[in-house]
Records
---
Amino acid sequence: MTDLHLDGISKSFGDVTALRDVSLDVADGEFFTLVGPSGCGKTTTLRAIAGFEQSDAGSVRFGGREMSGVAPEDRDVGVVFQNYALFSHMTVGENVAYGLRFRETPGGKSKTERVAELLDLVDLSGFEDRDPDELSGGQQQRVALARALAPGPEVLLLDEPMSALDARLRQTLRTQVKRIQSELGITTVYVTHDQEEALAVSDRVAVMNDGRVEQVGRPEDVYRRPTTRFVAEFLGENNVFAGELRDEVVEVGDAGFHLVDLDASDGSEVVFCVRPEHLVRVGKRDAETTGRRAETTDSGAENAFEVTVEAVEFLGESFRVHLDWDGRDVTLRAPERPEIETLRVGFDPADAHVVSDGRRDRSVVEEN
Amino acid sequence: MTRGDEVVREESQRLRPTRWLERHALAVLGVVTAATLLVVFYYPVLTVFADAVRVEEGISFEVFHEILTDPFYFGALAPLLEGDFGRVSEVAAEQPLGLFGFTAFQALLSTIASVLLGLPGAYVLSRYEFPGRRTLRSLTILPFVLPSIMVAIGFVAFFGSRGPLNDLLGLVGLGPVNLLFTLEAIVVAHAFYNAPLVARVTTAAWESVDARMVETARSLGASPWRAFRDVLVPQLLPAILTGALLTFIFTFMSFPIVLALGGFRLATVEVWVFSLVRDLDYAEAATLAVAETVVSLVLTYAYLRYEARQTGSSRATNPPPRKRPLPANLSPLAALERAGVLVYALVVAVVFVGPIATMVAESLTGPQGFTLQYYEFLVQRQVEGASFQTKPGVAVRNSLAFGVATLLVALPMGVTVAVLTTRGGRWARLADTAAMAPFAVSGVVVGLGMLRGLVFGVELFGHRVQVTGPVAIVAAHAVAAYPFVVRNVAPLLGGVDRSVVESARALGATRVRALLDVELPLIASGVAAGAAFAFAISIGEFDSTVILATGSSSYTMPVAVERYIGNRTLGPATAMGTVLLAVTSLSFVVVDRLGGRWEA
């Protein structure tokens, strides 16, 4: 097994810069996820690891070995693509056995045994002689996984493997993939644009945007403590406010907010975010107002502002309330449908997180 | 797996020398292909170019100047090019077109005729559902690979003063007309070849039209006619223009049809080059060939540019419903349309079946009715013929042998170029252009170049290197055939999902292994079609073979057909043509059984 290191990878396609100085360290046996919007460079990063793209600069190392210039067939990676990419002219068994033509079967087993073992691993025992076309999408993707794992690769690379499947199947399959991954303890890089999926299965995630890595960390840390505005807005819902710091108070429009852990000089701009579930209604003590989090309304009172209700969506376990605050869009999660037009809402200073406004920082850099 | 295992594995990979070859096989194949093209195509063609400007010592453009300012070649354009404006009107009255003008004129007429004959076919094939529709659609490729000299003989027999056409016209009280050695005959014969091509590309475009687009137009208030004009026509026009442009290029360079149906009286540039070669006037032949090649290269470039701008025809997810030939309720308009289709079917039968059937019939008809005397002649010639005479058996054997050899050369060449074209990155453009160049250079020019360059020999490091007889012919055939392999293989190869190949690579397959194990099996139908094309083109190739086989025993069936054309009777030629037809058809059946499909 192998740890994986990317060091200063850059890649351009003509005028388009796909990767800007990407560095990542993936530990041995780790389930590491690259997540970001389409075009953020996550797939290009994966393709650079697999050897399908040669980076313009930087190095890729498996264990201690430099991989730049090594052809994909010599890298010992297993790759699973979004569209399964099964060889439709071969049976399921032949597909799984294909990699064994070039690499020795792990564990000194016969090819037939290895194929049976892998098909058993993905719950497709006895499917050897089927044609890929006869299988459902989920089954095809499991065959693709078995095929990638059969030669015992050092690194498993998954490129949006669930995107072509429907939502319910996606959940079952991702649980299965995660189970197999931890059973084998194989170093895995997983690419997805689905932030929920990324947070659900990964040991660590890297959020990518515009060819850069914005933040790396455990899913819960990245979700709870985003460091950049992009991460705050990309992972889950968030309310992002930008204001100016004056006498320990962040002034946003007419309102002033108290935040904790402020590390900025007076007069500088402060961007911070508050999750919709951390915004609460204040000023009303009745049970109908804020329900579960009624006990926090007192602390929210100091960071309160007046909003009007624009729209309400019922989500099942709660309501999403779209609010307007002097022309700013604010979102709130509420256990009940609000009955009035105008509300006061607020938040606990501990629930607000200051983030760097990545976009602004960059544009300044690029103008220079 | 432990580190120790890995070391052993890497060692074992390093120790296999085949692995190196496999890893670099594509590059090696690319170099071999390029070298082959260089020797058997670019060098000979450049020899022709050099012949055009070379005099005793040094270079001269004298012959060029002569040709450009000769009204015989350029008509009213010639005095203009010379700067002698006074003579323009005088020449315009006598020789307005010249040889080049006439060649372009007959190509234009042929293109118009092909489009007119092809479009209704596209309509019927794409809008009607009837038994045998798929077969008919597949058959549209057939004329394209039919040996041209055989078709020419068929047309000579068909259009002749005592031919079936005049019999048919006589039945309805018309005629007799003599179409032989007229422009009309050439145009109709060209339409025979190219109308199916126009029908084919247009049908493909028509079938990929999404019915919902027309329905959307209708829902927005367009009448059926407006919807047709505003939505359908713009989608079909690129295909029609592609077909028309290709037709113009092919007919501009057409050789055996014009030679057989027009003779030297209605000669095109190509025929005139051939005639100059026969008179051993190589300098003028070469100059003329260069001028012709420049025109056809420009046209081919225009075609490629135009084709590249068209986005790949997406398969319609929602094709419009097809009409039935005989629905229960027939409105007057629909009845009129069916009547039109019926008339069209008759015309198609006359134009396409007529000449071929006539050729077979003619081979069995003597002055006193049914006879086998022409076939007896073939057998007798085979058994008793002197060595300098053309023997049918030798021709059949040569044709088959050259066909197989061409297949073996053109298939790897074509597949290599297709791979480099579709996946090669910066090589793609170069490979694509190089691949299409033989398309734009006529067979007579290639034949002439090979004759002058390779057959006569080249002085190389003190040795005289000669490529003669069968080798030269196979080389010429391969050059003519491999672009068709590329055209059949490349689009399918481009359609193979990149991730399928990458999966194979990640599993340990080299690029070539992935090609052999995964891509080629996935596009087997395209490879088979390419192979069939290569074989068929070799079997039917006439233009360069007739030059290269001169005075040797390397003649093929088409050349034998031409040699048997007598002054008084078409008998032996039609008999040989029928043998050619039989062998060609049999080959197609074999290829078809081996899994090939005529879905190019």
---
Amino acid sequence: MSFTIALTVEEALTALARGARPIAGGSDLVVGARHGKAPLPDHLVAIDRIDSLRTVTVDDGGLAIGAGVSHDTIERHPQIAANWSALADGSALVGSPATRHVGTIGGNICNASPAMDTGAALVVLAATVELASVGGTRLVPIGELWTGPGRTAVRADELCTAVHLPSPPAASGSAYLRLEYRRAMEIAVVGAGAAVTLAPGGTVAAVRVALSAVAPTIVEVDGLPTGDLAAVGEAAAALASEQARPISDVRASDRYRRHAVGVIARRAVLAAARRAGGESIAVPVNRALGIGAAS
Amino acid sequence: MSESIVLNVNGVPYPVAIDQSRNLLSVIRTEIGLTGTKEGCDDCECGACMVLLDGRPVNSCSYLAVQAQGRTITTIEGVLEGDTMHPLQRNLLDEGGVQCGYCTPGMVMSATALLAANPSPSEEEIRIGLSGNLCRCTGYTKIVQAVQRTAAELAEPAAPAEG
């Protein structure tokens, strides 16, 4: 095995072009290797000291998060909490303080777990992923990034360098919550992210919902109506349960997941709408509202 | 492949020649010889292996030792003040927050990082700060009380315990 430390994106891309694999905090890679899921790659290039990957920028174009930004930073970033709340909700639920310190947004989305806590948030917030290689840079809509459990459209010579999120329209809010059996070191039993834009009068002008841990990848719910909030919430519940393709595993049966994801989707829509209406709900929604825990 | 690196642990530079796939926990325990840091689950779940990297908690079982080069590593041995226990350690004993003791070094490291970032945490903040550390003996209440007592003492250092 070889291990090198890159200090610039260019150094990292050169190493990737020669066959190295990137490592940031290593929280998925190192644990996975010990489990026999996948051995450590023969050639590793550390990207956790590349300063340009660790910046958060907010401007008129929206939010740009470097791929090396930790969940801990996202969770505590006041502008992300205020305007891209669902992402802050998701990052705040990951693992423990130690996991959130070493775990990065780029690593989380490229690990492509269908149960990841940031994915549904990124989908409903219309994120775009920046992929760089020595040949150039391309932008991929987040929904096209994942091709299966643990599989992505990222080529071996490409590095995820940033995630871009547009500024939400006025009167918008978002939330991500998950069903969990315990409050920390947990993986979503099911999860849902929602983004809601309210029309004058409080009806729903636009809504997006995405689901985690109910399909081979994060999936977006199709066919949601607009209009009366309660009716949108009920429709989100019904459509989420209908469109889910869950599996049975150690954490839940497929039938339970299919039912529960509807409940969680409706709660996510209602929490997002409360934020859209100007209510301040602390990050993460799971803790602030005391919802999501199966008791 | 073996590589010679220097790890800075508790203010001491330790040169070690290690395989690059080794985790930080095994290098601290078997190469450097500091055995206060424990291996629990070896799966990034239990927090027994918690050390501080540049002051922030890290599960050393799931962190490559080569990635810790040039960073400041603090283990449980590094929180002692000479031969004197850190207030957290003393309060864990006084409050009965220690039974088998296996989780205690990790608890102390997480609590140290918490109090450095937030000197007067609420009970909820303490529970979140320790949420990556499992204890199978005490049930957490006394551990949380020990952290609360330490925070109060550090805020008011002139008020010593009973003589």
